[in-house]
Amino acid sequence: MDVLAQLILNGIMIGSMYAIISVGLTLIFGIVRVVNFAHGEFLMIGMYAVYLLWHHLGLHPYVSALPIVVLLFVIGALTQRLIIQKLLSADEYIQIFATVGMSIALINLALLLFGADLYAVNTPELRAPVPFGGYSLLVGHVVIFVCAILLVAGLHVFLNRTPLGRAIRATAQNRNAALLMGVPVERIYIITFGLGAACVGLASALIVPLYPVTPTIGTYFVLTAFVVVVLGGMRSIYGAFFGAMIIGIVDSLSGYYIAPDLKEVVYFIIFILILIFKPTGLFGFGRGTE
Amino acid sequence: MSAPTASASSRAAASRMAPWSYLTQPRVYMSLLALSLLLIIPALSGSAFIVHIFVTICVFAGLSTAWNIVGGYAGQLSLGHTIFYGIGAYTAALMIQHFGLTPWLGMWGGALVSAAVAVGIGYPCFRLRGPYFALATIAFLEVIRLLATHFHTVTGGSAGLIVPLKLGWAWMIFHDKINYLFIAFGLLLLCLGVSLWVRHSRLGYYLTAVREREDAASAAGINNTRVKLQAVVISAVLTSLIGSFHAMYLTFLEPATMFSLTTAIEIAMYALIGGLGTVAGPLLGTILVVPIAEASRGWLGASASGLHGFVYGSVLVLITLTLPGGLVSTFGRRVGELVDRLPGARPRPEREAPALPHIGGTPGEPILEAENLVMRFGGLMATDNVSVTLRRGEILGIIGPNGAGKTTLFNQISGFLKPTSGVTRIYDDDGRMLTPRAPDEFARVGVGRTFQITQPFGKLTVAENIMIGAMMRHAHLDDARAAALRIARLVGLHDLKDAEAGNLPVSDLKRLEVARTLALEPRILLLDEVMAGQSPSDTNKMVEIIRAIRDTGVTVVAIEHNMQAIMSLSDRIVVLDSGKVIAEGEPSAVVRDPRVIKAYLGEEFVNAQGL
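^ Those are the sequences you sent over. The predicted structure of the assembly is below.
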């Protein structure tokens, strides 16, 4: 039982990491209605930025979180303004190709600039274990867990209690009605895309102490984030949070009980099954909606 | 139900052109000349590097052309197509290793496995749309790649697998690279040939129809899942054959490069750049991008690792922003017109089918019986025990206020909705009873329906739209086109036959909707508000069309809000309100029925009139 409990705890810790990334992806999908295939590369950009600030200026990753969040917000907002905005009325496949193209370009740009080497920051204090009722967690993981909860709570308050948050929700529910009520929909999209990217900025500052940076690190995280988002119902940040926890636990358990290199197979199969058997229920679309 | 008469079909056969006579068409000989450059240039250059670039072009153009059958024609954006490429590669290599089987045979083994996998993946995934389909294909690719890495005793895992090096044509491995080019070029020709054939076959039209409008496609008698599966199997087989060949060319296989997501995206990207859903697009896209990338890789070497990927990604984003239709859609028409000025061009002979013989059966007998149809949506009873009998040769009008359940009734008697309870029976000309289930089965037993909100296949021409319907009854495309032209004339769309349907005004779209349904040669025609939003003159035209249709023996059911038109047109009227039949009978009796007046105008009006 001890092993199982420890594995579940580990799973929740891993899940928190996915939660922060997936909440951002969910915001973009739920409101702008675009699947951002470049989401992982935003994470990669953030992680390189964290590394560079640490390496050149000696900034602790947690200190650089704030400027990185702002940086990613700007990158996300610009992506929406310069690329996605122009494709909103285009066919779906064009939108997919656009974000896929960004993803390929960014991965390879990183490869050009930094090569395929791993870059890691040296923050041993965050890799120290903390005892927790007979089990053991890493400091860095606990911080991520707390941040994930604070992020979801913060977004909840923002979306429900502020005028801007209400405008965002209105836009998500009915774009045209929101437009008629005087909501500047285009600006809302830009802000939302920025916020979604900013979540990844936060994630990158928290993840760098635990995972080294490579050009393809984004792909590693984002494919899992897609699984989480679909599991969580595609539009709900709470769904994304709990979906992330489930995938974290599945990750942890199947890595131990099945085989470390097959854990992704397990959750991709879950993903495929959900897509196939609960597609309408989970996405909130009926068949035949154009 | 009427087969074309013997004399009509023999005349049709005489007007068809022999295959070789197409060689004098400028578009055909220019394409063949251009293609041959893919062999001539590298053969003259004598440089191994140039030959390598051209082999790569042929391989990726072939892959992209094969992908386009699913991604372009069928509009299913697969980002997992390297599954089939990898299966082809591994199967051929393992067959040599374990059984000493030549790759010329092993590649067909791989194709067989790929076809089976394609059905296994396609069947469940084809119900997904847009980004979800793309995500699901990525997930399948990841699963297969991870499994291939995990079972390293079979595949060699991430350490890789080296193809046994036996030289010669039997083993598809050569010293002189030009031999590879011959095979790669042959495979490219095969892919282009298949793609061209699909594009101009019944399957190609059906795929376009399914891509544009799934519902209208099933109403035209198309089994959507089956045609998509046909497309993915053809595409998977071609992809797998190329994968087998490429394995022999690369001689080293590892899961990361064989089942690569990046390669899968590149394949799709070439098709997008050249023009999705066009025959030449994938090849043009590849020719444009691959040499740049390969040359930069060759000349700049490792110092520029990532450069070609950066170029690919940026080009992809730029294309979506500037040329979303790709090269062919943007420039294709102009180039085509220039080529047509070359000698040898001959206009295509057009033929119009003769009118159909009168439909058989005894007038007045039941042809369709709907019995106790109940349709419940949650708490709402959209139809509540509706029973309607349709008699052969009549025009039945269905009226009722908004939300009365008229369209829901149509959806049930055409197979689009499965009733909560109740049955629909259809009788054929000899009085035999039929109980079709799916929409395409209803279409095949002779129930044709139109949609209240018109559902044109926007990117096809008017004639092609009608052809989609006509193909259900005509084995040969020329016959389907001839039948389509006859119907275009009947509904007054003949002058617009080559216009793109997406550009038509509403009144023409309504007539196109009727025309496409008529092309199914239905015995029962269900018309859902075909006069709504029409000008008075258009309404009169439509009334004449419907009368003409009935005169050929077709039984007509029309939902209509235009009272004057429906009253003059119908032999009998059924009135629905709140999901129930509240009145039924001759038009003159129905309009005086107090229940009908109440349903339309309210109780107070009935009282005030002292009815």
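Chain A is about 75% helix and 5% strand. The two ends of chain A are 50 Å apart (CA to CA).

Shout if you want it in another format.
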